[in-house]
Amino acid sequence: LAKTTQPISMDSYEGQEVNITCSHNNIATNDYITWYQQFPSQGPRFIIQGYKTKVTNEVASLFIPADRKSSTLSLPRVSLSDTAVYYCLVGDIVDTNAGKSTFGDGTTLTVKP
Amino acid sequence: EAGVTQFPSHSVIEKGQTVTLRCDPISGHDNLYWYRRVMGKEIKFLLHFVKESKQDESGMPNNRFLAERTGGTYSTLKVQPAELEDSGVYFCASSQDFREFPGMGQFFGPGTRLTVL
Predict the structure, then answer these.
(1) Beta-carbon separation of B31 and A34 below 8 A
(2) Phi, psi of A5 (to 5 degrees)
């Protein structure tokens, strides 16, 4: 399973766009990139999943360059309630959906007023 | 629609005792997963059910852990006998078949915090 590297922490202010980058140099051809969000005392919450280029949903965008060795989760106009830990997971679609992808340490995002 | 629920939310037991954790997945989700996070470590996969069958239990740490999913509905995870290193947060998650519903990820419960003294 591909290892991922994310910043340990990030700070932002309300209303700003936040971009969290994840490095996955050893990503395999069949691997997908999945992001989860976790609040204290809660389980992780699925945000977005992608394979290449750009994926957008109602809460975030995921940018994946052509070489797929990194990916960027973009959160538009964050609010205080977006303060959480964000995890980048990389694994093939079977392993990812079978729960086999590694969560890692995640990025702790702190949004300030 | 109700989310994934777990019971109890907290459990404090003594070393050597038995504890059973319960997970109720989202109705209609055939896939059910157990994870745990021990203190200071990352969230780790334990096992995966598809309906009542164990699809993958490669993450189960040892034979003190037993997971069941009777009738393909709720699941239980029993630890017997519990050891100090079993302390942590146990998460359950469920999902639909990703082939039919791609890009939906897993839905996690709030977790059960287990403390073994």
Answers:
(1) no
(2) -130, 125
Q: What is the dihedral of CA A38, B42, A33, A6, to 10 degrees?
A: 90
Task: Tell me how close the Cα of A38 comes to any Cα of chain B, in angstroms.
Answer: 10
Fill in the amino acid letter for B105. Answer: G
Q: What is the mean pLDDT of residues B47-73?
A: 92
A41–B35 CB contact, under 8 Å:
no
Report which DSSP code applies to A107: E
pLDDT tens-digit series, residues B7-59: 999 999 999 999 999 999 999 999 999 999 998 788 999 999 999 999 889 89
Rounded Cα distance between A106 and A104, Å, is 6
Decide if A102 and B42 are in contact by the 8 Å CB cutoff: yes
Give the residue from chain B lying closest to A105, CA to CA. B42
Alpha carbon B108 to its chain centroid, in Å, reads 10
Pairing, β B10-13 against β B112-116: parallel
Taking a C-beta distance cutoff of 8 angstroms, is the pair A63, A110 a contact? no
Could you tell me how many residues make up chain B? 117
Per-residue three-class SS string for B44-75? EEEEEEECCEEEECCCCCCCCEEEECHHHCCE
